[in-house]
Amino acid sequence: MICVNGDGGFGQLMVDFTTAVREELPIKIVIFNDSKIKNIAKEQAMHLRRGRGP
Questions:
Q1: Which residues constitute the domain of residue 6?
Q2: For the whole model, what pTM was predicted?
Q3: The 3-state secondary structure of the chain, one letter per residue
Q4: What's the rounded Cα separation, in Å, for the pair 9 and 23?
Q5: Would you say residue 53 lies in a domain?
Q6: How many Å apart are CA 25 and CA 48, to the nearest integer?
Q7: Does 15 fall in a domain?
Q8: pLDDT tens figures, 10-46
Q9: What is the C-alpha to C-alpha distance for residues 7 and 25, in angstroms, rounded to an integer?
């Protein structure tokens, strides 16, 4: 199995990837640095009106 993901998606799914490693699943992961993490923060700020965190 091959997983292709951007850096933002990888950050959100990292727990799932650690499970795959622990279970020794034969998965190849390709991560693109498409700088979308900042877009996630912008979207959260727009909807939450106060940004991330407490």
A1: 2-48
A2: 0.52
A3: CEEEEEHHHHHHHHHHHHHHHHCCCCCEEEEECCCCHHHHHHHHHHHHCCCCCC
A4: 21
A5: no
A6: 37
A7: yes
A8: 878 888 888 999 999 998 989 888 776 777 777 777 7
A9: 21
